[in-house]
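queue> pop job 88
queue> type: inverse folding (structure -> sequence)
queue> payload:
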């Protein structure tokens, strides 16, 4: 656990979060992200529910290209896969120039695995040095990854919960 870095916290009583997708997000991506939220919920104190209103949701998810107005432009398919802004910002953006898939496919990035990582950032976790942790700062195309004890312990430590 000593390997984990932290970003900043949600308010200490804010464990029920809503999320919404930008217009045009396809159903495969929505399902993959919902599964990732479910994984975090089953391993932490957080609960997540989808909101029909993108404007008022705590967490906002979408696919974007290039300079998309958040101060962190994507640089084509050779750059970052996705990024998320820690609490209380709550934005999570996939880089639309990359290839994403629901199932692990060579040359494509697994939607759910990327979502697991970015949701960790949404909750306040920074990158981990533990290679098996979802918060490790890299993933190969065509592979999947799940939560690791380091990820879960990181949130417990961050929010001062018993291990």
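queue> result:
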């Amino acid at each position: 656990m000593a390997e984990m870095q932290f970003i900043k916290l949600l308010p200490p009583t804010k464990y029920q979060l809503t999320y919404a997708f930008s217009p045009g997000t396809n159903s495969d991506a929505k399902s993959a992200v919902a599964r990732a939220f479910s994984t975090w919920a089953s391993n932490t104190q957080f609960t997540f529910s989808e909101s029909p209103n993108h404007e008022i949701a705590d967490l906002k998810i979408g696919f974007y290209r290039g300079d998309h107005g958040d101060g962190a432009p994507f640089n084509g398919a050779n750059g970052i896969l996705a990024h998320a802004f820690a609490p209380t910002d709550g934005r999570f953006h996939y880089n639309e120039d990359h290839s994403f898939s629901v199932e692990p496919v060579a040359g494509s990035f697994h939607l759910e695995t990327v979502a697991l990582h970015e949701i960790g950032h949404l909750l306040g976790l920074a990158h981990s040095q533990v290679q098996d942790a979802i918060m490790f700062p890299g993933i190969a195309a065509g592979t999947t990854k799940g939560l690791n004890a380091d990820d879960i312990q990181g949130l417990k430590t961050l929010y001062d919960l018993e291990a």
